[in-house]
Amino acid sequence: MVLLCAYALIGARLSPQAVDTSTSTVNELRCEYQTDPINIDQAHPRLSWIIDSGKRSWRQGTYQVLVASSKRALDAGNADLWDSGKVKSAETNQIEYSGLPLRSRQQCFWRVRVWDTTDRESKPSKPSHWEMGLLSGRDWMGSQWIGRQGPAAANPAPFLRKDFKVTGPVRRARIYACGLGYADLSLNGRPVAKSDERDPAYTDFDKRVLYVAYDVTRLVKQGENAIGAVLGTGWFDVHDKATWNFDRAPWRGRPRLRLVLAIDYVKGGTETVVSDRSWRSTVGPILRDGIYTGEVYDARKEIPGWNTPKFDASAWSPADVMPAPKGKLCARVCPPVAIGQTITAKAIKEPKPGVFIVDFGQTFSGHVRIQLREPAGTKVTMRYSERLGADGMIERGQIEQFMAKATPPQPFQSDTYVCKGAGVESWEQRFSYSGFRYAEVTGLTKKPAISAFQGRFVHTDMESAGSFECSSELLNKIQWATRYSYLSNAQSIPTDCPQREKNGWTGDAQLAAEAGLMNFRSETFYTKWLDDLQDNQRRDGRMSVIVPTGGWGSGGRNPAWDSAYPIVANDLYLYRGDKRVLANHYAYLSRYVDSLATELRDGVLTFDSLGDWVPWQTETPSQYTSTAYLFMDARIVANAARLLGKSEDAVKYDALAERVNRGFNAHYFDEKTGTYSNGSQTACSVALYFGLVPEPRRAAVLDTLVKNVTSQGHIDTGILGAKYVIRVLTEAGRADLAYNLVSRKEQPGWGWWIGQGATTLWEDWKGESSLNHIMFGDVSNWFIQWIAGIGLDPSSPGFSHISIQPQPVADLKWARATYDSPHGKIRSSWQIDSTGFHLKLQVPANVTATVTMPFPSDVTEDGIAAADVDGVQAVRVKGGKTVLEIGSGDYSFQMSLGRR
Which residues contact 268 (CB under 8 A, 6 or more apart)? Predict the structure, then answer.
């Protein structure tokens, strides 16, 4: 990591040198992981870039960051905010801004220049920019929280509006807004968001509330203007009654909005429009919206033109000033929840007269958009489900049981639309979501066309960052299912399932985090959730088992699940090189470990807790997994302490880890059987993977695991063991056994799920519960890192050095994967044919790799021996395999199959 105190800043004016424009360019400038963000609230934002170079083994020797207050100044070379000078460093990631103090709404235009290790300059980057958000309470310009008071139950969604005038040409216009639970904002009748977004995001609203910034320069116009807002209940006002008691959350209240519109004029000066009592309010067609229940919309109550200028709102009421939430206003750092994909309906059936079942062929999170022509007053209801019963009707018993019985009965995962009878009508709900594959549609007067229904896939709008495919269609379907499960459960927090619960279970999140980071640019998503975890922690260090929580699941101890806090923080450091996240959370992580350590008895944890959830058959004691996770947590905190220069703490937590290690081995290792605990697949793999097994015992414990897997022929773990057993087997040279566990078509296993028609991952090996869970999702990470071979080197956070170890196993003929690392795209593609084994690699500039070829044969590139290939820095034999040390670049290696 780069330490700014070590920078050699030498001034702004640099002597002209040769520019290497033909081979190297600086691209993908990001600020706090984002491209051109306009809502940064960090005093020292972190900047990053990647180098695209046509040269092998290209390395950055020096960089210079220029930041100016205007694009004109930047183009003129006047870096009036910050000129880093020419800094000798290979680092391109997490470079901390160290210029003049930045004020609210400050615009920062920046570019980067880099030189290689021979001091040859590459082509400078194109300009990029970021903007600061609102950094203090006074920047909210006296705005108030406004809404519409009324009874909590079944109260229609508030509509709010405000007229204002723009008196001249506009240079820049921004809306800063927080609408709780959700706010659908428009300006002059047009949405201010780029897509159909659910903003801001779900938090513990007593601790933290998030605001969003929108660029509305294109929407304001000289003369009359109007802002409109529709408020949804979301997670702020959960009136649905369910097992998790969010209807009793301490923060709960009617929806409310705080907003500032700042307009900067071309000729100078800024004008603001703020939320206050001058706004007008009413109710409209959204009669009810609930996070679990769905939405009811009566199109006959629509108000045409309500959010446009010159609309007559004299009959509307003044907006009510609402109490401010207790939480601190902070900028939303993660992407919005938005409609990421439209899914075409695949089939429609009528199992009973007037009951139409629409099959989308894919399980996902979201809702249905309908298009229909029906008489006014026709009430069309859509009920969502993951599965059908034997009669062809939707079946929801496994998920509906968690909704409380109420009088009158509550709807669940249902949307209702009442037609206005004005020709063809199109509608989709705004403020809720469901988990489903099938939609039951009733109330229509005639059979609809299949084109009348479209599925809208709603999730946190993350960029894709990884891919995998191979010659096995089964593995490709598992990869597909994992990505759909991950996105379905990315709802501004990592959830367990999108239908019955929608809860931030910590166990599910920690087990899927690495797969999420390898498949998606999910770093800001986890950054946000780590703040939620921090807000959740009690003074005694305890964590809730779901985060956020309104109270349910608090006060207990579940170490294998609570460890989500240190694990996800550490994952962000390992995968993205994010040192700051460890610094920001260190005090809380250490408090958590300190608190848990007080429960040790002879070096082990003895209480019952959630552990290896939903095992196939063999249960592993939760005390065993809890103790193992405490060992890992202590090591994470010890390493963080070393990284942050807290040497005394490092010694303390190293000693704690050693104490737990001794206790674990003394308590759980059986000298007679030569194994741990009950010898389950989970017990063996957790002990081996976490490093709890002394070296002299490793071979024996691994042998126990291999015998267990071989004799059973299938996976026999719950969610914890499922992550580690395939890793341990692969790293021990038994990728064949790991592959068999994953690809097995008989029950239990991922392959069996696919054989039953699964398009997402299931909650249990039997398929008796939810059909859209992510907690078994690390299998995708195994595909990318182990089968395709794009491996993380834990000693080199952020993929500045990578480990390439492709695993051609069983009947696989080829595999390929990509990963958008902090330094650029990594590709690994291998193929086996009659001429041998072929491996194509793309290693980004500024990165090195260790390549372990799978067979004991000579390695060549285009007939040239590997040792003589440009970019290959060393060749050696290790464990009977050829190992190459290479620099950046594109490579195409070949080798004979040798002795497979």
Answer: none
Sheet containing 859-861: order of strands: 466-470, 814-821, 824-833, 836-843, 889-895, 859-861, 864-865
- 636 near 570, Cβ under 8 Å? yes
Q: Could you read off the pLDDT of 416-454 as tens digits, one per residue?
A: 999 999 899 999 999 999 999 999 999 999 999 999 999
Q: What is the pLDDT of residues 353-384, one digit of tens each?
A: 999 999 999 999 999 999 999 999 999 999 99
Give pLDDT tens digits for 592-642.
999 999 999 999 999 999 999 999 999 999 999 999 999 999 999 999 999
| pTM > 0.90: yes or no | yes
pLDDT computed for residue 409 by the predictor: 84
Q: pLDDT tens for residues 523-576?
A: 999 999 999 999 999 999 999 999 999 999 998 999 999 999 999 999 999 999
Residues in the chain: 900
**SS3 (DSSP) at 623:** helix
Residue 667 backbone phi and psi in degrees, to 5 = -85, -35
Domains of the chain listed by start with CATH number? 4-131 (2.60.40.10), 137-334 (2.60.120.260), 339-460 (2.60.120.260), 466-787 (1.50.10.10), 801-895 (2.60.420.10)
Long-range contacts: 667-671, Cβ < 8 Å, 24+?
667/602, 667/603, 667/604, 667/627, 668/604, 668/624, 668/627, 669/697
Q: Report the alpha-carbon angle 581-586-591, nearest 5.
A: 145
Cα→Cα distances 877→24, 771, 880, 896, Å: 33, 46, 6, 16
Report the chain's mean pLDDT, rounded to a whole number: 95
* Residues 398-401: contacts with CB under 8 Å, at least 24 apart: 398/500, 398/768, 398/769, 398/770, 399/435, 399/497, 399/499, 399/500, 399/770, 400/500, 401/500
Place of tokens 């040279």: 733
Q: How far apart are alpha carbons 143 and 671 in whole angstroms?
A: 69
Catalytic residues: 501, 763
869 is written with which tokens?
């290939």
Instruction: Please list, residue by residue across 84-103, b when 16 or more beta carbons sit within 10 angstroms of its beta carbon and e when fewer do.
Output: bbbbebbbbbbbbbebeebe
DSSP letter at 783 equals I
Could you give the count of Cα atoms lying within 13 Å of 486 in the half-sphere of its Cβ?
31
62, containing H or E segment = strand 60-68
For residue 114, count other CB atoms closer than 10 A to its CB: 30
Kind of pairing, strands 453-460 and 466-470?
unpaired
CA distance 225 to 170: 13
For residue 95 the two structure tokens come to 């470079």
- pLDDT attached to residue 22: 52
Q: Phi first, then psi: what are they for 678, rounded to 5°? A: -95, 10
What is the pLDDT at residue 885?
97
How much of the chain exceeds pLDDT 70, in percent? Answer: 97
**Exposure letters 286-304 (e unless 16+ CB within 10 A, then b):** bbbbbbbbbbbbbbeeebe
pLDDT tens readout for residues 92-113 = 999 999 999 999 999 999 999 9
Instruction: Give residue 152's pLDDT band: very low, low, confident or very high (50, 70, 90).
Output: low
The continuous run of DSSP H or E covering 807 comes out as: none
Q: Which amino acid is at 90?
A: A
User: Which is nearest to 631 in space by CA: 605, 668, 669, 607?
Assistant: 605
Q: Minimum mean pLDDT among 253-262, 286-295, 394-403, 686-695: which range?
A: 394-403
Report, as an integer, the average pLDDT of 33-52.
Answer: 97
Residue type, 274: V
Return phi, psi of residue 747, to 5°. Answer: -70, 140
Mark out the alpha helices in 337-472 (DSSP H runs): 397-400
Q: Are 572 and 270 in contact (CB under 8 A)?
A: no
| Residues 849, 847: Cα–Cα separation, whole Å | 7
Place of tokens 């390395």: 59
Question: What are 71's two structure tokens?
Answer: 């694009």
Residue indicated by tokens 């650029």: 824
